[in-house]
Design a protein that fits this description.
about 15% strand; about 375 residues
């Protein structure tokens, strides 16, 4: 397993992070025994970073991860844990200092820990960003001074939210998703700014919630437009013809960028974990990557809307065809799994930014 520094925190984290969102029901009915086995195997394979939230499975994921970590026969210093505050349900957002402080104490109880290494304000695009700056981050800093949190960050989907917060208050780390993978490299434009600020960069969902894989998404509702999903199916068919799972190529690409400390992948079983680690040990199919990039050109850097309209990134219309509209009726929760990747692909891509309607989709991070 390879490790990278997480900004200026002094933490060295495994490039593959364990996304415990998979312990929630969206990924199937994971038992405590399966969770314990997966966490133990992750430690055995060198993975040292575990990410969770009270939102995942409505506290179930935190509880299961807590039991699994408790069962480990290793010192607390052997693993790094991040959790989140502010989002507690599909429509339950509360970033007030009072609730954040109270709910964080409950998170520690579920995790059976005295402290967490990282605490994020979760999916901040759904609230007033000034509240994050003036109330939520200061509340986490107080918990940091009390020894309950080592480092403070924010998470979300639109990239503009990170500049807004960091221009007004320091952060230690940030976590984004769906902005560094085979079909999107927009995170690269933000990295120089984050490095200048000394902020550790974390990513998630390199498979775009499963659609960059042979199996497809596990979610009945996905925020990507139908055309986007169809192009991903074409890419999966191409790699399948070459005897390679598209997920393997996506994982290898996403974890290849040295500027992204770790990429979280949803892990629900030992088998899934071992497969992911094995893929990282295999050589990258550069020629196949070039072919896949050509297939994915029509959806390169396509975005969708999450949260408040004012917190979303600007979307440009393409001179080419418009993507099909996403109906407001398709607003639906989905949970994520993984992380994103590096500029190797930017050499193969030609930019094509598409106009997607401004929808308040329930994008559950990471």
């Amino acid at each position: 397993m390879k490790y990278r520094p997480l900004g200026t925190t002094g933490l060295n984290v495994s490039i593959l992070g364990f996304g415990a969102a998979a312990f929630g029901p969206a990924f199937g009915n994971v038992t405590q025994q399966q969770a314990n086995a997966a966490v133990q195997r992750a430690i055995d394979l060198g993975i040292n970073f575990f990410d969770v939230s009270p939102f995942y499975g409505l506290t179930k994921a935190e509880t299961m991860l807590g039991h699994a970590l408790k069962a480990l026969n290793v010192p607390r210093s052997a693993y790094i844990v991040s959790t989140k505050v502010g989002r507690y349900g599909d429509n339950d957002f509360d970033f007030s200092a009072e609730r954040v402080t109270a709910e964080f104490a409950r998170s520690l109880e579920r995790l059976q820990l005295d402290y967490v290494d990282v605490a994020h304000c979760h999916d901040i695009e759904y609230t007033d960003l000034d509240q994050i700056v003036l109330e939520t981050v200061p509340a986490l800093r107080r918990l940091q001074r009390d020894g309950k949190i080592r480092f403070v960050g924010v998470s979300g989907y639109p990239l503009k939210i990170f500049r807004h917060v960091l221009d007004r208050t320091p952060l230690d780390v940030v976590l984004t998703y769906n902005h560094y993978h085979l079909a999107n490299d927009q995170l690269l434009g933000l990295i120089p700014y984050l490095k200048e600020k000394g902020v550790g960069v974390m990513s998630a969902s390199p498979l775009v919630h499963g659609i960059l894989s042979d199996r497809g998404t596990v979610f009945t509702e996905h925020p990507a437009p139908p055309h986007y999903r169809e192009v991903c199916r074409q890419a999966a068919a191409l790699t399948r013809e070459r005897g390679v799972d598209l997920a393997q190529l996506a994982m290898q690409f996403a974890l290849s960028n040295d500027d992204i400390a770790t990429t979280f992948v949803g892990i629900s079983s030992v088998e899934e974990l071992e497969r992911n680690v094995a893929w990282l040990e295999q050589p990258l199919h550069v020629d196949l990557l070039r072919e896949v990039s050509d297939v994915l050109k029509p959806i390169h850097n396509v975005n969708w809307r999450c949260g408040r309209p004012e917190n979303n990134d600007a979307l440009q219309a393409s001179p080419a065809e418009q993507l099909p509209l996403i109906s407001q009726d398709h607003r639906r929760r989905y949970t994520t799994e993984l992380r994103l990747s590096h500029g190797v692909l930017s050499h193969f891509f030609s930019m094509a930014i598409w106009n997607v309607p401004s929808l308040n989709l329930y994008c559950i991070h990471y």
